[in-house]
Amino acid sequence: MPTFDKKDVTVIFVLGGPGAGKGTQCAKLVDEFGFVHLSAGDLLRSEQQREGSQYGSLIAEYIREGKIVPQEITIALLSNAMKAALESGGATANGGGTVPEKHRSKWTDGKGRFLVDGFPRKMDQAVGFDEEVCQSRFVLFLHASEQTMLERLLERGKTSGRADDNEESIRKRFRTFEETSMPVVEYYRKDNKVVEVDSMKPVEQVTEDIRKAVRETFARLGEEA
Ligand code: C5P
Ligand code: MG
């Protein structure tokens, strides 16, 4: 049995290649829908930096090489972050406040709703999370060309300080995305769970398109927006 019941806990996976805009767009949706945003990559980076972490050097190596960190590490980090958010009534993982007042009712009695960004990136993560943590509601897939993503990542790399925002790591991340992560998207597509948005348009337009898609999907699933 999964730790969290999908009738209480809404999980939306946000997928897309590196630089597709997952983090940027998630941040823009949080307040409107009362989501807590959990980025698998951010959780891994903070675990890597945590003093005393037994996984620090392993995570650093995987990230630099653009490889997928063993699923049990990432699933445990996500599950812990979800538990903390649910127990605190929707406080964000990084201590950045709670969900807005108007959404507080969606975060009582063990209920909550999450945007899980950059996860699952590999089939074993998808299956493991579904079985052990929570069944997801749907997948928001942000589509962008490699050219667009490369330009965005090189731009971001000027200031991000990320060890993997350099051209060599970016090429490896693209390969991992095509070979390992796209099969996950296709797996959910067969289940009719994928909502796809063109993420090459200007940021504000993409946000508008996502907003509309999320509203329509909630309506279709009979869930309050
Ligand atoms: O999503 P983000 O670009 O922040 O991910 C950075 C790196 O973290 C990935 O390239 C990968 O090495 C690792 N990661 C992972 N499994 C995930 C998400 C991220 O191994 N589900
Ligand atoms: Mg990100």
Automatic annotation (TrEMBL):
Gene3D superfamilies: P-loop containing nucleotide triphosphate hydrolases. GO terms for biological process: 'de novo' pyrimidine nucleobase biosynthetic process; pyrimidine nucleotide biosynthetic process. Signal peptide: none annotated. It is found in: Cytoplasm; Nucleus. A ribonucleoside 5'-phosphate binds at residues 45, 67-69, 118-121, 125, 162, 173. It is an enzyme of class 2 (transferase). Residues 39-69 are annotated as: NMPbind. Transmembrane segments: none annotated. Its cofactor is Mg(2+). Its main location: cytoplasm. Keywords: ATP-binding, Cytoplasm, Kinase, Nucleotide-binding, Nucleus, Pyrimidine biosynthesis, Transferase. It comes from the Eukaryota. Consists of three domains, a large central CORE domain and two small peripheral domains, NMPbind and LID, which undergo movements during catalysis. The LID domain closes over the site of phosphoryl transfer upon ATP binding. Assembling and dissambling the active center during each catalytic cycle provides an effective means to prevent ATP hydrolysis. Catalyzes the phosphorylation of pyrimidine nucleoside monophosphates at the expense of ATP. Plays an important role in de novo pyrimidine nucleotide biosynthesis. Has preference for UMP and dUMP as phosphate acceptors, but can also use CMP, dCMP and AMP. Belongs to the adenylate kinase family. UMP-CMP kinase subfamily. HAMAP family: Adenylate_kinase_Adk, Adenylate_kinase_UMP_CMP_kin. Monomer. This is Uridylate kinase. It comes from Tilletiopsis washingtonensis.
